[in-house]
Amino acid sequence: MINASDSPDKCQIPFSNVCALLIVLSFSIFSLFSNVHAAQVSHLFDITSGNDKALKLPSDVVVNSRGEIIIVDGGNHRVLVFTSKGKFSKEIGATDPLDVRLQQPLGIGIDANDQIYVVNKGKKRINIYHRKGKLLHSFETRNHQGLFVPVDVAVSADVKTILVTNNTHHQIALFSNKGVYQASWGKEGSNAEEFRYPATLVTDKQSNAYVVDVLNTQVKILNPNGSLQTTVAEWGVLPGQLFRPKGVALDDEGNIFVSDSYLNLVQIYAHNKKFQSVLSNPSGYQHFDSPTGLTIDQKRRLIVTEMRANKVSVFLLL
């Protein structure tokens, strides 16, 4: 769900030198661990265009209760809805008032009622849409320090609280379901309840928040009060480690799926937060092209946005 301007690199030295070497080495290192247990997937189909225009830098995706696939097509400043089989259905937001119309949309969330929440990054707003696509409400991402750049959005299980990742102040901002600012969690840093460019987030059935903390190369799990429960993963290029995490999704068993936009892999951590496997196909590890946002639907389909490939890939988890 993030582009380069949203989250600086873990390596603070020129990427073309040491960082590039680490990436190349990581693929060799991963190949040495071919005996690592791998979660198998079968590729179903790709979505590469909608409404007669090719996708451009798709960044995030959700699925509603009808199985419709809803994609943030950020480079084209739009949100698209597709049937469960990948056929284009409609565009959301194209007729919104100009002052809240989508500009550089980035993240997306969905609640128990199928209402859709879109990060309108360019306008520093969150747009809320009815499940049929009508704009219901839009509010500024403003906390006690002022307007901030939003990255992703999620909703509590009881649909009372909206959580927004704040890249400006390295925090998680909480709003009421009406868009009224309530509180913020965290600050910039590397300690337990601090963040360095928080990116994507999801909530579980208990309203715990799973936050991708990009430069701290972890997923941090916070309880509904914002206290840290535990962390998942650490920096590195070995299986189970993360180099530049971007997306996070949960399945019905509580397993945690994390995309890494530099390693171009998705790794899975068990409900006990321990590393479990690397996503694979029958030929080996399943490689992506800059995977960012991802989600898992009720049919155990894993849907991954591949930002550089300008496509969204749909897999069946076996």
Q: Can you give keywords for this protein?
A:
single chain, 318 residues, mainly beta, four-stranded antiparallel β-sheet, 1 helix, 6% helix, globular, disordered N terminus
Give the gist of this structure:
With 318 residues, the protein is mainly beta. It has one domain (15-317): Neuraminidase, CATH 2.120.10.30.
Protein architecture, described:
The chain has 318 residues and is mainly beta. The protein has a single domain (15-317), classed as Neuraminidase (6 Propeller). 6% of the residues lie in helices and 47% in strands. Strands 1, 22, 23, 24, 25, 26, 27, 28 and 29 form a nine-stranded mixed β-sheet that branches. A four-stranded antiparallel β-sheet has the order 4-5-6-7, with no helix packed on it. Strands 8-9-10-11 form a four-stranded antiparallel β-sheet, with no helix packed on it. A hairpin with a 4-residue loop joins strand 9 and strand 10. The radius of gyration is 18 Å and the shape is globular. It starts with 14 loop residues before the first helix and ends with a strand. The model is unreliable at 3-16 (pLDDT under 50).
